[in-house]
Amino acid sequence: MLASQKTPINIEIASKKLIFPKDFLNKIICGNTVDIMKQIPDGSVHLVITSPPYNLKNSTGNGMKDGRGGKWANAALQKGYSHHNDCMPHDEYVKWQRDCLTEMLRLIPEDGAIFYNHKWRVQGGLLQDRQDIVNGFPVRQIIIWKRKGGLNFNPGYFLPTYEVIYLIAKPKFALKTKANAHSDVWEFTQEMNNDHPAAFPVSLIDRIVGSTEAKTVLDPFMGSGTTAISALNFGRDYIGIDSSPEYCDMANKRIKQHQSQAKLFQPTYEKQT
User: Fold this and answer.
1) Is the pLDDT reported for residue 271 higher than 50?
2) What is the CA radius of gyration of the chain?
3) Which whole-number Å values give the CA distances from 172 to 7, 168, 236, in the listed order?
4) pLDDT at residue 267 tops 70
5) Coil, strand, or helix at residue 105?
6) Whole-Å CA distances, 72 to 11, 58, 140
7) pTM, entire model
8) Which of 4, 97, 121, 238 has minimal CB crowding within 10 Å?
9) What residue ranges do the domains of the chain occupy?
């Protein structure tokens, strides 16, 4: 979004100190993720759902870094994220993600939880299972997201079809009644009709939000706004943070479109997941 463009009404530009809750609830905040989270009081967010950049361009195991696979040159993830090149030195990336998780953990109460999506990969011939990021945090469960669909541009690998979601929970966190009947392998079609290079499918986030009683949902890497849309589906408040003005604008437009469509269909019951 150009500086000359008018900032949408529910986007905050974090150039000033923000006041909770009026500057946070049901808004997209554009700025540094950690710095913005530091302005939210302890225990103020009941649920965090997020998927950070994976640092894929610093990977030796997917053909993105060394040019294998030909068609990777035209893939959305190869082009990278707006305002983030996804190629940080590994140690720097791990420290950044641990700083983010530290803030997320501070923000949730004793019955709160974080659903942290990431991707395992082979790096330098060894499994990189993100233990260096989540070690020491209260990981309760690992959920497998089996993606339907997708394209494989690399002839040296089978089609990757799964990602992991770490359930990081405080001691009193509990699922809603009957939500524990879901298995720990979730099959959802990946989002295809989205200009963001790595968008969640709404159905996946609906599974998470609908399985909790959370009143306020935070996504500190909001991207195109999927977590906010899911929160609205269940009548919950959301807080979105992203460093990219382009993605903040994209999220705002998707939310407004979703709200307009929702007015045409007034549900009388909560969506089942």
Assistant:
1) no
2) 18
3) 40, 12, 20
4) no
5) helix
6) 33, 14, 35
7) 0.84
8) 4
9) 18-244
Domain 18-244 matching CATH 1.10.260.40: the answer reads: no
Residues 211 and 176: beta-carbon distance below 8 Å: yes
Return mean pLDDT, the chain. Answer: 84
Angle between helix 245-262 and 226-233 (nearest 10)? 30
Residues near 241 by beta carbon (within 8 Å), at least 6 away in sequence: 28, 29, 30, 31, 33, 36, 37, 218, 219, 220, 221, 222
Q: pLDDT per residue over 115-174, tens digit each?
A: 999 988 877 777 878 999 999 999 999 999 998 877 777 788 888 889 999 999 999 999
Maximum Cα–Cα distance for the chain, whole Å? 53
Count of C-beta atoms within a 10 Å radius of residue 189: 12
Task: Please name the residue ranges forming H helices in 31-170.
Answer: 33-37, 76-79, 90-107, 131-134
Secondary structure letter of residue 36 according to DSSP: H
Judge contact between 80 and 57, C-beta under 8 A. Answer: yes
> Is residue 20 a contact partner of residue 44, using CB atoms and an 8 Å limit?
yes
